[in-house]
Design a protein that fits this description.
The protein is an alpha+beta fold. It has helices at about 45-65, 90-110, and strands at about 1-5, 5-15, 35, 70-75.
Length: about 120
């Protein structure tokens, strides 16, 4: 798990115990699963929540080669100051989100830089 001021990254391995030999696992064992949570408690406007989620998925794609094969969830853990970011989708807000997500994924991957395609 990694944390920044506004985000937390939770990781869970995808190898649940198999109780029945005929049962198929719900998730593929050799994949990276990414989820995003932006609760209404911390981002009141839907447009802001969607912007945050889009940024999470965009930045996670850049770090995908460095992430372990597991289920990952990025959670918004506190809100951005609406007094400082007046517009729900301003470039300043998007930049702040993106910068903090790079810090979050950098911590999760022990400071490795993402590989450009």
């Amino acid at each position: 798990m990694a944390r920044t001021t506004h985000f937390a990254l939770h990781v869970l391995a995808l190898d649940p115990p198999i109780m029945d030999e005929s049962a198929r696992p719900l998730f593929g064992q050799s994949a990276i699963w990414m989820g995003a949570m932006a609760p209404k408690r911390w981002a009141k406007r839907a447009v802001t929540r969607n912007t945050i989620k889009r940024q999470i998925f965009a930045v996670s794609r850049e770090f995908e080669p460095l992430l372990p094969q597991a289920a990952h969830v990025v959670r918004l853990r506190c809100g951005f100051d609406r007094g400082h970011f007046i517009s729900a989708t301003s470039l300043a807000l998007k930049s702040a989100i993106r910068q903090e997500l790079f810090q979050l994924f950098g911590r999760a991957t022990q400071g490795q830089a993402p590989v450009s395609p």
